Amino acid sequence: MGHTGTLDPFASGVLPLCIGKATRLSRFLTGHDKAYEATVRFGFATTTDDLQGEPLAPPRTVSIERPALEAAARALVGEILQVPPAFSAKQTAGRRHYDIARAGEQVERTACRVRVSKVEVVSLDGDHARLDVSCSAGTYVRALARDLGEALGTGAHLVALRRTRSGPFTAAHTVLLAELDFERAIQRLVPLEGLMLEMPAIRVGEEGLRALRHGRSVGRDLVVDGFPDGAPPDRVRVLGPAGELAALAIPRGFGRNVPELPVQPVFQPDLVLIDDTVVG
Fold first, then answer.
1. CB of 2 within 8 A of CB of 168?
2. Among 180, 190, 187, 176, CA closest to 22
3. Is the pLDDT at 102 greater than 90, yes or no?
4. Which of the two residues, 261 and 198, has the higher pLDDT score?
């Protein structure tokens, strides 16, 4: 069994798990955008940017104006450079930042480029604000809370976080961990052919399946549907005759034909799922 990301210890929500052959696909599922419901408290920042850290200054009473908060939230939307929290899984010289911080050493943090699609103010009650956030994988919502506090001059930290979506997976796909049993788990399983639907697909017949089982590429002669006439995508799903997900494949030889050196465009299997063979 494998998972497609992590959640902070105090957070809850959607965390897709992979079992069986799906564990081979986990690296392709971790990069999906995420959506969150977040609660931010203004008045002081913490060492961890959330409620589990120590205050960096004495808490103080603050008055937040909603227009100012909404303006600060809008400023965080787009492609931004985000400084990760001091207590994070990022590494410097092979050491996790949280290990460096727990040792009492200064953590040198490098800003990372992330994409924030939405930071919407849902409600504002005193020094607490509820936000809807959509962002790329690798974005720290608690760092967004910290940056809101810095923009407003009040300090801030995250006090609650719930992931509502991970790529195509929403709360409708989930089962509570405390209620997890075999029957509920089976009902929530997504078959391999239901994954990564945003990735284009080609379909092969039985001869194509035989080629894939031996790690051989499939060309136009083995693809019964979906072979691209123009520039191909970076990677495709390869479906078998019954629509089963047989492999992931990458293009080779497209756009390279010259009269002196003709090249047959093919799709080379990158990951084979119809047996226990992993190629590449």
1. no
2. 190
3. no
4. 198
The pTM score is: 0.82
Query: Can you read off the two tokens belonging to residue 67?
Result: 């227009």
Neighbours of 7 (CB within 10 A): 15
Q: Where are the domain boundaries for CATH 3.30.2350.10 in the chain?
A: 2-171
CB burial string 269-278: b at 16+ within 10 A, e below? bbbbbbeeee
Residues serving a catalytic function are 8
Number of DSSP helices (H) and strands (E) in the chain, helices first: 6, 17
Four-point Cα dihedral 211, 214, 216, 221, nearest 10: -10
Average pLDDT of the residues of the chain: 88
pLDDT digits (tens, 9 = 90+) for 52-90: 999 999 999 999 999 999 999 999 999 999 998 887 777
Q: Decide: 151 and 72 in contact? Cβ < 8 Å.
A: yes
Residue given tokens 């995420």 in the structure block? 34
Retrieve residue 260's tokens: 């002196």
CATH architecture of 2-171: 2-Layer Sandwich (3.30)
Structure tokens of 92? 């410097």
Average pLDDT over residues 18-40: 90
Please say if the pLDDT value at position 3 is more than 90. no
Q: Which CATH class is domain 195-272?
A: mainly beta
CA distance 202 to 246: 10
Residue 280 above 50 pLDDT?
no
C-alpha span between 132 and 50 (Å, rounded): 17
> Residue 56: what are its φ and ψ, rounded to 5°?
-85, -10
Q: Is the pLDDT of residue 166 over 50?
A: yes
Start and end residues for every CATH 2.30.130.10 domain found in the chain = 195-272
